[in-house]
Each structure stands twice: as structure tokens, then as C-alpha cells.
Amino acid sequence: MKANSELRLLPWSGPNEKPCYLSTDDASSHLSRLADTTEAAQLDVGQELLEHAMEVIVDAESGPAELRLLARDLTEALRDALRVAVSRGHRLPAPDSAAHGEEDAPPRPPAAAFG
Fold first, then answer.
1. Residue 7 and residue 91: Cα distance in Å, rounded?
2. What pLDDT, in 10s, does the model give residues 31-79?
3. d(CA 17, CA 88)
4. What pTM value is reported for the model?
5. 2: confidence class by pLDDT, cuts 50, 70, 90
6. 17-50 burial string, b = 16+ CB within 10 Å, else e?
7. Alpha-carbon torsion, ordered 8, 46, 75, 36, to 10 deg
8. Residue 12 burial (CB < 10 Å; 0-12/13-18/19+)?
9. Are 100 and 79 in contact (CB under 8 A)?
10. CA 11/CA 34 separation, integer angstroms
């Protein structure tokens, strides 16, 4: 079994909404691929929902029930997107600042990031 920091947070919850984790050294295992596919689908649904939300918000005839449903769906999509972000963030390699001689220096974005 891997250390907790090496476990992959899966894009679905277990009983009582508890997080599910995967311990594997094989990023191409069946369960890893299923998690990758699920994450991609969740992000696609979130994008489609965002586009729909923009249409509903500008529609003056959208009623309270439709807005409540939209808020619920957006909340679920945001929860899924945050879980994907946390999972992917934990799988990023740790920066090796010591190799660059900048142990205590804050990260610096490239100049191109500012236009």
C-alpha cells in the first residue's frame, strides 16, 4: 500500500459521500483509466452546464424553480471540478527548487504569462 500522499483521489464518492482513493503504480490500469474518463466527462458536463447557465441567466422568463435547479446542478459540477483539481494537483511532481539553487525563492511565472 502506498503512503497517503501517493493515493489518487478518485472522481466519485463512496458511502456517506466519503472520498475514494486508488493505490496503484500503474497509471494505465483499468481503474486509473476509468477515473481519467470519469474526470474528463465531469469537466465536459461542467462546461456544457456553464454555457446553459449563461443562457438561463439572460432569459428574463427563467423562473425560480429553473434557477434553483440550475444552482443545484452548478453546485454539483463545481464540487466535481474541485475534486478533479485536487486529485490532479496531488499527482503533480514536487518542484525541485534545490536543483535550481533557489530553495526559499517563491515561484516566478514566465514573463509571457503577463501578455
1. 9
2. 999 999 999 999 999 999 999 999 999 999 999 999 999 999 999 999 9
3. 20
4. 0.72
5. very low
6. eeeeeeeeeeeeeeeeeebeeebeebbeebeebe
7. -10
8. middle
9. no
10. 10
